[in-house]
Amino acid sequence: MRVASFGGKPLPADALVTGDGTYTGDPHAVYGGYGPYEARSPTRGTGAIRAFGEHKGSGPALMRELLGGALTGGGCSGPVTEEGRGCSIHLSPAHSGTRAEFESAGCAYLDWVLSARPVDGDGPVLAPGDAEARTRAVRLTEGVFAIVLLVRARRG
Q: What residues make up the domain containing 106?
C-alpha cells in the first residue's frame, strides 16, 4: 500500500475498504490526503487493508496488525490516535535448539519457498526484500541515488 501510494505498482481494485465499506485500490482510503513527498499515516484515513484470503485471512490479518502495528507502536490501519514509537522483539533460537539447527531449518524453508514455480512464469520467486535490493542495485549503477548518497555522506 505504501509503495502504491508513492506511485509504485497499483493495488488491486478491492485490496482496501473505505470507511463506508466500499472496496477500493486507492491508498488515500487508509492514508487520507497526502502530497507526493509527504509521510503516509493511517491517522489521516478512515479505511483499512482488507484481509487477503477473505474470511480465512482475517485471523492472520488481525495478528499482522497487532504485531506490526500495535506492538511496535507503528500504528494499525485504524483507529490510530498518534504516530508510532519503536519496539524490538528479540528471539533466541538457542532456547529451541542450536543456532545451527535454526539456521538450517530457516534456510531449508526459504529454499523450498523460492523453488516454487512463479505465478507469471517469468523470473524467479522472490524473497522479501529481493525486489528492493534489485532496484537499489540498478539505481546505484545508473546513478539515480548518487545525489542522495552524496548528501548522506556529507552529513556523516
A: 90-124
Does residue 26 fall inside a structural domain?
A: yes
> Using alpha carbons only, what angle is made at residue 94 by residues 88 and 96, rounded to the nearest 5 degrees?
100
- Indicate if 14 and 33 belong to the same structural domain: yes
Distance CA 153, CA 84 (A): 28
- Helix (H), strand (E), coil (C) string for 5-26: HCCCCCCCCCCEECCCCCEECC
Mean pLDDT value of segment 117-126: 80
Residue type, 11: L
Whether 49 maps to a domain, the answer reads yes
Residue 78 lies in a domain: no
Q: What is the pTM of this model?
A: 0.45
Please check whether residues 66 and 12 belong to one and the same domain. Answer: yes
Which carries the bigger pLDDT value, residue 85 or residue 133?
Answer: 133
Rounded to 10 degrees, what is the CA torsion of 26, 71, 82, 58?
A: 30
Is the C-alpha dihedral spanning 80, 39, 129, 51 positive or negative? positive
Which of the four pLDDT bands, split at 50, 70 and 90, describes residue 34? very high
R_g over Cα of the chain: 19
Same-domain pairing of 109 and 136: no
Paired with 16 in beta bridges are 24, 49
